[in-house]
Amino acid sequence: xAPFAGYNMPIEYTGISDEHICVCRRLGVFDVSxxxxxxxxxxxxxxxxxHITCNDAAVLTNGKVQYSCLMHENGGVVDDLLVYxxxxxxxxxxxxxxxxxxxxxxxxxxxxxxxxxxGTDFVNASDRYAQxxxxxxxxLRAMQKLCAEPLENMAYxxxxxxxxxxxxxxxxxxxxxxxAGGCEIYxxxxxxxxxxxxxxxxxxxxxxxxxxxxxxDTLRLEMGYCLYGHELNDHTTPLEAGLGWITKLSSxxxxxxxxxxxxxxxxxxxxxxGFVLADRGVARAGYEIYSDKQEKTGxxxxxxxxxxxKLSIGMGYVQAACAAxxxxxxxxxxxxYLAAEVVxxxxxxx
Length: 350
Description:
Layout: E1 2-4, E2 7-9, H1 16-25, E3 28-31, E4 36-41, H2 45-52, E5 65-71, E6 77-87, E7 90-95, H3 100-111, E8 122-124, E9 129-135, H4 139-144, E10 159-164, E11 167-173, E12 182-188, H5 192-202, E13 209-210, H6 213-223, H7 257-266, E14 270-277, E15 288-290, E16 296-305, E17 312-319, E18 328-333, E19 336-343
Parallel strand pairs: 3-13
Antiparallel strand pairs: 1-2, 3-9, 4-7, 4-8, 5-6, 6-7, 9-12, 10-11, 11-12, 14-17, 14-19, 15-16, 15-18, 16-17, 18-19
């Protein structure tokens, strides 16, 4: 256990490698109740969301989820988040635990422009909700035991409100942060223990295990998913992070758009890449990255030995000249320069 974002969080139960493989091959459950939830309500809900985020929420229909970023004027990322559309006048934003207060303050700066009242139309409901992430190829099969409505055929990045294990008003979404399939479940905080016990019982015969934050990190890294505070921060732009696909510069105006247009016109100078070490060793966040000319070109943001493939993998920012797939780079580990090659994540098959 370790303190994180005001919570005592489990880092590992049986071991990171064992838990990682369990999620990839069977199913595991993460208690991620530390995540933040904001409701956006009323006729101006969509215009407000369109203004503060870089993706185009106007394409959402009821029951759909979207990955996006909350933006700074300088083009930096306040946070990455999920946008849930319940109706034309009801949306849910799910944000990272360590950024709850920061995100709410940043977004609230623009609320009044759209006639939204904080606490009424724009509501930080984080303390009211528990969240369980049941991830893995067998996750939906197990959860179907707890629900009368069909769950196993739900499309990726959709959600519905259901009664699950007798708990009413559960938000059940086919999202996740592992690349292994599964769902994320939101319920009243008071129902968390009963729901956890029901989930564990439903998955028992399929080999469910509780999973900690350690395996959550190695699973997302194998998929090449960004982690705020590592690949994303207040001064990193979505264009640098390879998130141009969620940055809709041509279809809408939003906070930070002008800065991103300028960066795009000038050419993105540094880019996030994935890499695999050829030499023995582990790349850790903060280690320097060098070009084949032994010139410093960037820095590692995340690295580990993959529990599944046993390869030493990582992500980091490098100068654009070193970002092409196949480029040879070197990671400085203490006094050694370990050879690596730039690759396209994911590092495992989805």
